[in-house]
Write a structure and sequence with these properties.
158 residues, alpha+beta, 2 domains, four-stranded antiparallel beta sheet, two-stranded antiparallel ribbon, 5 helices, binds zinc ion
Amino acid sequence: MALDAFVRCTCIRDGKAKPHPFPDRLTFDESGDPMLTGDPTEDEWEAHDHWLAQSCEHEGFILSFFLGNITKVGNLRSFLRALQGSLGPRFPILLEKVLYDGTHTGDWLSSKASAALLKEVDTVLHSSDILAESEKEFFTNMKLLCEASIQTGNPIMF
Ligand SMILES: [Zn+2]
């Protein structure tokens, strides 16, 4: 039970991935996940998943990080609330979309939201002298995820 985050590479979209077993049925859902159209059978999904796992040198992802377990995410939330103090919501995306719980999966932030998130992360990193090592690691990883998302145009997925 923990929080992980990923950013997909662009190899499939750029035509650099290995040929798909059913290329005319390959599509992307709104989060950018490669999907099959039609009413795929279990065997077809299996062939698709098998392809996806070895579709390119990145195995589909340019970045993937373990962000923390429930305890660490809870601590980061408290840290950010204390940091924003009475000045109002300075970290709305971090608090409401990333750290709102320590186990969310299957949700995602668009690359546009990543640009706004990067500003929040940079604000925290400006206070790096008050960050503990594990906090610094978390916010540095978030920065890398934001930059990868902005660069690829792909969402940050959890
Ligand atoms: Zn790739």
